[in-house]
């Protein structure tokens, strides 16, 4: 099991899902800034911010996939568009060479993945906290202790443990298409790392480990970037 105390969840999710990226895209590595990425790909900071609808260009995450070439254009020949997966802590750093434009104030989740994912609700209960993509990168669903938690989509368990401070008993499941889901604060984990799970299979029981209430904290990531899971869940 990975030892993860004090490691941000975003870095763990990035390490668990590191599929290669295509031409014109770049996966953020430790120590990167928007300025550094823009310079390496011979683009302006403003363009990187606009193409990716970055709400805060001074804070990007390890494993996050960014567009580094104009939409509809091929990657510039010779530009160092690397595809090596990132590792380590979430990155943040000053971004010089551009002010805050209207695009940089756009909703962090404004660009949806080209290929979607079909999710089911991971548990029953009341939605008590929503996603905002900045200070809260998932949703919380509250119910009684022991309420079944199920896999929102088929995939493989890539983390099962309690080594990440603030998330209690945590499961991370890797899905097709560079998607990951995370299930935190569980009372009991019912699956192990490396286990293949079916959509709707019970994988945990709701609890309050490392939390002040009984609830599931559920996150969805695409290319290392947090996205609003309710956009891919059926209405209820």
UniProtKB/TrEMBL annotation:
SMART domains: LysM. Residues 24-68 form the LysM domain. It holds the Pfam family LysM. GO terms for cellular component: cell division site; cell outer membrane. It comes from the Bacteria. One of its GO terms (molecular function) is metalloendopeptidase activity. Coiled coil: none annotated. Residues 74-107 are annotated as: Disordered. Belongs to the E.coli NlpD/Haemophilus LppB family. This is Peptidase.
